[in-house]
């Protein structure tokens, strides 16, 4: 009887967020089949730990598990060295570039955008995916990434700036 109650609660709380979990995992590990495996592992961990879940936002809870599993997997399987850190002095240009949202919506192709997103450091890519694709609040992203809201805002600003720089040549070419 208790297992049935737990199962129903798990299904209602966690299963509606599987698409968001897969989306985050795919963007973090950059591979669909690996993302599927990692989401499956996250669901198993969520199931095992569900008795300790005290309510609240099931989406954030699941995405936190997915995020942690993805970063652990990346450390263990992608020993390519650290991602290039964004250096404001080296990567900034004095180029007038339209706002990132307008660039994304009006001029860049999906393929160009995906390539630009893939080139972002993981923490920037994570912030953009959670905010722009999953629609989470700064607070929710902070809880998932275990960072202050100010750090979330900084990562989003830097990610958007990097996307603008990456997409600017494409926009100029199309204009």
Itemize the secondary structure elements and their pairings.
Layout: H1 2-13, H2 18-29, H3 32-49, H4 58-77, H5 88-91, H6 100-107, H7 110-119, H8 122-133, H9 138-145, H10 149-174
Helix pairs in contact: 2-3, 2-4, 2-8, 3-4, 4-9, 6-10, 7-10, 8-10, 9-10
Walk me through what this model shows.
The protein is mainly α and 175 residues long. The protein has two domains: 2-77, RNA polymerase sigma factor, region 2, helix turn helix motif (Rna Polymerase Sigma Factor, Chain: A, Orthogonal Bundle), CATH 1.10.1740; 88-174, Orthogonal Bundle (Arc Repressor Mutant, subunit A), CATH 1.10.10.10. The protein is 74% helix and 0% strand. It has ten helices and no strands. The protein has helices at residues 2-13, 18-29, 32-49, 58-77, 88-91, 100-107, 110-119, 122-133, 138-145, 149-174. Helix 4 packs across helix 9, helix 8 packs across helix 10 (149-174) and helix 9 (138-145) packs across helix 10. The protein is globular and about 55 Å long. The relative contact order is 0.13.
